[in-house]
Amino acid sequence: MASGLRFKDKVAIITGGCSGIGKGCVEVFVENGGTVVVFDINDKVGNTLSLPGPGNVSYIHCDVTNEEEIKNSIKLTVEKHSKIDCLINDVGMHHGSHLIDNLTVDSFRQILNINVVSMFAMSKYALPHLRKTKGSIVNMSSFSGTNAQAETPTYCSSKGAIISLSKALAIDEAKNGVRVNANLDDLESHVK
Prior knowledge:
By secondary structure, this protein is of the alpha/beta class. The chain has helices spanning 20-31, 43-46, 67-81, 105-133, 153-173, and strands spanning 11-15, 35-40, 56-61, 86-89, 136-140, 179-183.
């Protein structure tokens, strides 16, 4: 039975895996025999993560806006599991619905840092390991990245940037056998 498990012998890093879509991704990997390392800042949930299934899950406190924490967390993952097969970049934020008049330039920088720059940094430091396994990256974007909604200029901009980042990385990494995709199914975050 174990030989039919889709993610048996695969090691995945999932950012934002303590809640929402990220946690759902963790559950799917564990149910299918995968080893998951959750990078998140929710220590209360992260330190008690325990999911049923033939796979296993562990937690590393990692603020994905902090480059040193990303590098150290990836290093710890590789030291413990010897490889990385998959990176799912799920961390993201939404300011809610606001006209541009009610948003600050700093709030735009914040959302870009969390939603886009973190994915760039995670990909940058995971790619040397993903190239060895011919692995994959999945960046969680949103329908909002291709079809803008009213009163969400910062969120839509950030999600559109994720799509472009993913496409550019996919072109560059094809020669290394690494697949890079953007998932547009994040509908929950802008339907409030």
